[in-house]
Structure formats: structure tokens, C-alpha cells
Design brief:
single chain; three-stranded antiparallel β-sheet; 3 helices
Length: 114
């Protein structure tokens, strides 16, 4: 009987450990996807030389992905246009959702497109 209790306790501990590790990996994947999307947006804005139509497309695409993207013109010299690109996104931890909580951490990426 003692062996069965120890075995059951180990199975529960291993299962909880796997859930925690899976939750951390899922959170890191969300952060990685957001950073990749942000880099694509900055590159598109730079390649278009700050075209307003491209910026509007990027903002609408960010909304589809659940990100909040803002682009502000911070040009000092006309020869070197510069845009401040700020993207806010949420990271959900799956381990909280398993236990019924909807916890989301908001994160922000800021940078310039020149």
C-alpha cells in the first residue's frame, strides 16, 4: 500500500511539473511570435520609407493578431525620416487557465524605424 501511495504521489508531481514547463514554453513561444511580428512590421515600414498606407496595413494586421500597434512620426531631419513603433501584446500562462484563472501579462516592445 505504501508503494502505491508513493507511486501515485510521484505521478502527480511529474504531471504538475510537466504542466508548469509546458506553460513556460507556451509563454516563451507567444513572446517569440510577438517579437518576430514586430521585427517584420519595422522592416516593412523601413522598406516603404514610412508610407502611411503600409503603416495602416501593419496596424490592421496587428489587430488581427491581438496586438496593439502604434506608430508615431518622430522625424528630426527631412532627409532621415524616423518613426517610433510601439507594440503592446499579452502573454497568457496556460497553467493559470488549467485552474480556471484568466491571467494575462501585458508587455511592450518599443523601437524606431529609420
Amino acid at each position: 500500500m505504501k508503494l502505491a501511495i508513493e507511486f501515485f504521489s510521484m505521478i502527480i508531481t511529474i504531471t504538475l511539473g510537466c504542466l508548469i514547463f509546458a506553460s513556460v514554453i507556451h509563454g516563451n513561444n507567444q513572446i517569440s511570435e510577438a517579437r518576430d511580428f514586430y521585427n517584420v512590421v519595422v522592416n516593412r515600414i523601413e522598406d516603404s520609407n514610412g508610407n502611411p498606407r503600409v503603416i495602416e496595413d501593419c496596424i490592421s494586421e496587428a489587430d488581427k493578431h491581438g496586438y496593439q500597434l502604434t506608430v508615431r512620426d518622430v522625424t528630426v531631419e527631412e532627409e532621415n525620416p524616423s518613426k517610433l513603433v510601439v507594440m503592446e501584446y499579452g502573454v497568457r500562462m496556460a497553467i493559470y487557465e488549467v485552474f480556471g484563472n484568466k491571467y494575462e501579462k501585458r508587455a511592450v516592445i518599443e523601437g524606431y524605424a529609420r
